[in-house]
Amino acid sequence: MAENSDRSKNEITYALFDMDPAVYYQERFAYSNVVGVAAQESRVTRGSVAYQKASNLMDTLRSRVNETGNPALKVLEVGCGSGTFGARIKRFFPDVRLYGVDMSSSCIDIARQNGFDEAVTCDVVQGLPYADDEFDFIYTMDYFGHIEFRSKDAMIGELQRVTKPGGYGFHGIESGFVDYLNCNPKDPEDVVRKYVYMEGHIGVETLEDIVRRFSPFFEVVKAFPFPIRPLLNISNVMTSRFWGEEFCSAFAEIDTPRTRAAADLVIGWVNRYLTDRLLEVYGDRLLRSELGPSNPLIDTMLTGSGFAMITVRKSL
Ligand SMILES: C[S@@+](CC[C@H](N)C(=O)[O-])C[C@H]1O[C@@H](n2cnc3c(N)ncnc32)[C@H](O)[C@@H]1O
Fold first, then answer.
1. Helix or strand run (H / E) with residue 40
2. Residue 83 Cα, ligand 1 centroid: separation in angstroms?
């Protein structure tokens, strides 16, 4: 156990890890090669596990467009990065008015090329630069795990402030248990420190904690882990040896870009099929705390997924 185990989550900050987010994020997610990437996607890539974050986002947006009968919804992505998700939205929902905000000006330059109607550079922990009740739909992807615990509630309050009454939010969030409280943030060999440096994940928490945080501000209409546990994409299966040595050795014998794509397509379809069936059977909130008596199969599938998706609604 490290010396600082009496820390609270609110003391887990970038400064504790000697990181300055403004410097760290300026170039970290600025990918100029993603401009136009949405146009190159095929049925194969769209079926993969990785893409299905986007597919769930788009399905949620599609139901908003259909239910409101308004194709020109005003949509905001907070922490938009280089805008790959926005590019997909503009490709499939060209009439949506798409706004983006990110603290990295390099990312914002690329997001504009990816079709955002308006994109601004801003550290949103200081507040969102928009008026009350401005957006029909707000989404984040891979964003909340980058926000310090002490800032999360105020951030969600800001999302609520700028969402129209009856408006929706969709959030793809890094989830799981990371032992921040028992790490040594100054030791370059510490696994949590390495993890935080790798992507900037300073504030990852479980799906139950995420839902608890959003609940005072929004009705959480849907919440589920994704991917469900055994069905990671094939690169993660191989890297983590998740399906065991025997599987990895066998797969290595046929490992080519095309077989990887084929494997991801199959895993993606199975993943989506099982997630949709679980949601049908258990309701829209796949939370361990709400599923009743423990069931070993369901528990195995729902724990430690690494990512979760929630859909929220602001009351009228
Ligand atoms: C992992 S990237 C995700 C980008 C994009 N949503 C995507 O999925 O492609 C996280 C983004 O959050 C942004 N970010 C982190 N903290 C922020 C803050 N306080 N204000 C604005 N943007 C922030 C980073 O600059 C980075 O672009």
1. helix 37-40
2. 10
